[in-house]
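We modelled each protein-ligand pair independently. The example shown here corresponds to the molybdenum atom entry; the chain sequence is given first, followed by the ligand as SMILES.
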Amino acid sequence: MNLPPQALHHDDPALARTPASRTGAPSRVVKGACPHDCPDTCALRITVEEGKVVKVQGQPEHPSTHGALCTKVSRYPERTYHAERLLHPLKRVNAKHEPPRFERIGWDQAIAEIAGRLQAIAARDPQAILPYSYAGTMGLLQGEAMAGRFFNRLGASCLDRTICASAGGAALAATYGHKVGMHLPHFAESRLILIWGSNSIASNLHFWTFANQAKREGAKLVCIDPRKTETADKCHQHLALLPGTDGALALGLMHELIAHDWLDHDYIARHVEGWEELRTKALAWTPERTAAECGLTADEVRGLARDYATLAPAAIRLNYGMQRVRGGGNAVRLIALLPCLTGAWRHRAGGLLLSSSGWFAPFKNPALERPELRAGRPSRTINMSTIGDDLLREASPDFGPRIEALVVYNSNPVAVAPESPKVVAGFQRPDLFTVVLEHFLTDTADLADYVLPATTQLEHLDIHTSYGHTDVLINEPAVAPLGESRSNTRIFRELAAAMGFDEPAFHDDDEALLRQAFRDDIDLGQLRERGWFKLPLKEAPFAEGGFPSASGKADARGADYVANYESRSSAPALAARYPLAMISPPARNHLNSTFVNVKSLRDIEGEQVLEMSAADATARGLADGQLVRVFNDRGSYACRLDVSARAREGVVHGLGIWWRKLGADGRNVNEVTHQRLTDMGRAPCFYDCLVEVAAA
Ligand SMILES: Nc1nc2c(c(=O)[nH]1)N[C@H]1C(S)=C(S)[C@@H](COP(=O)(O)OP(=O)(O)OC[C@H]3O[C@@H](n4cnc5c(=O)[nH]c(N)nc54)[C@H](O)[C@@H]3O)O[C@H]1N2
Ligand SMILES: Nc1nc2c(c(=O)[nH]1)N[C@H]1C(S)=C(S)[C@@H](COP(=O)(O)OP(=O)(O)OC[C@H]3O[C@@H](n4cnc5c(=O)[nH]c(N)nc54)[C@H](O)[C@@H]3O)O[C@H]1N2
Ligand SMILES: [Mo]
């Protein structure tokens, strides 16, 4: 329970300015960063009274997030002080196919027993051990810093962290050379904004503020999304294309840019590689063909192309929703080429933003996770998106050893990974040894042998980058760890000690990790004083080309439309049995599967719903509000039907991501998704999924 003295900020000048609280007790304000997997990475202002966090607000002085917080994160104290928060280590006492029963144990016992089991497995083959983690916290320290060291030293299997963004990430890298794009505030100056595969109001609120500012100043906003989202409601136009057809739409737009000669020939000649090849492909995508593939009208395609070519500066806010299909990588490549063809990049308010995370790469310390601790030992890589299949695989020369142990942190794979019937069967294997570091008894923790209570963002130190803006943020611990919870870094340090790993890397405390996270050119003093640090970057990054690719050009070579695995046009026999295309985007008040157990937020979302058009409901004799079964050959789950104008005919929306155990029949939307991978980046295809729906 001892916090390092600097973490308490007794010397913080903010202290002096803070008035006494309602109760008369002095209150402290601590600088924080929202840890969640969201492009916004908000700067937080955390108010502490009598050792307890009473308020979490945005920091008004932080330009990128300007003091506004989403509903979810303003409930952070409710989540942290939740009655079901895990406060002690737990050990499972019954079989995994039964409802879980755990007994409370002490930390010494937990660490000793876990280290013993891992050591025994590692003595046979350390690659039988797999870490499983994602972005429950995006912090560099509580993410992979100490965990990476631990698994490198152990020689465990590596995890390919593909579950969210790797198709789009690989596509940006193939096209621009890195995950880079426009700066967020410049959207306020755009004249046209295409909000493409992004429900920004729900999932990227601070971008929306800038887009709204542009709208007030006369910009046109167009939303390109199969679902009529809250964001589509606020745009001038909504184009409800069929899921997975974005690449075709981009080619159709290029067709019109060529036909009307709306091209910036000079920019193309100097800064684009492979234009002739792309031009030939685009000429085959007439507005009529494009419209037929995308489920739009030819006039919608023509009108969008005209707007894109004639309203300048034109900006595209792409988000990861549109790359969760077989052709997601190619679709991102084609869309990312659009601003290179019109020269939109010449203006700082033109271009495209999918991710800004590549801007941080030159500043980060790549050695934070200490790859040298692996000491040349082999490392097989398991794709986190196929964990269902991989847990059920036997040892083989191709695959390597059977997975015998899983250490899960910052993720809830049993709820979020595709094709849950297989994921659950894998986690239920009686011979699998599973340790889960968590705040709550999630669906994944329910299938653990040991559950270790982890600290939340209010209780530990961390440093953050962002994939939406270009600032580095500090998160100081505001209060001592609750109960017996421990930070991920501390847990991995203690496991390392118990396993006899005595390299100096395991003696680094969080303050030392903080100093190592970035290269020397980041001023930590300034960061701690202000709460954030803005990277020194060019205003209009590609006005003169200079993409971070090997040639310095944007690369169009090889980019082409790839149709879905599952759609009416690409799989007609399957579509005859399962005619509805299902997407499963986030519910506004959940953050993936996080916050689903926070009552005030769950009360807003109600229960797991499926949105369906009136036409599709009538055709099936289904009524609004009734319990339905969503199914295909992989599985089925029950939820409430919402007959809704948000759904177009032929497409249904299973809003996510519910904890399975809170679902109507103990399952969620991933019961029906599959484990096939995207064309680039080996990512899952959550939104490339055919289903049928019937009364439950
Ligand atoms: N409130 C909230 N915010 C979040 C999240 C959350 O769960 N809740 N998740 C966070 C995470 S993990 C991420 S990765 C980011 C980004 O997360 P994203 O998953 O990109 O989130 P959205 O902005 O909702 O974008 C998805 C949008 O894409 C649409 N869509 C689905 N399929 C297609 C398609 O084929 N084409 C097109 N054009 N659109 C399609 C969906 O209808 C939805 O409106 O947001 C983060 N922010
Ligand atoms: N069908 C469908 N499935 C999807 C998606 C979809 O749109 N549709 N979206 C996908 C996307 S974009 C993503 S990013 C993934 C997200 O999948 P995950 O990264 O697994 O995200 P969460 O479900 O939010 O689970 C994060 C867990 O980390 C825990 N956690 C948070 N902070 C800490 C910490 O400091 N220490 C420890 N030990 N634990 C912590 C939280 O309590 C939470 O249970 O899901 C994917 N799955
Ligand atoms: Mo994500």
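The first helix runs from residue 5 to 8.
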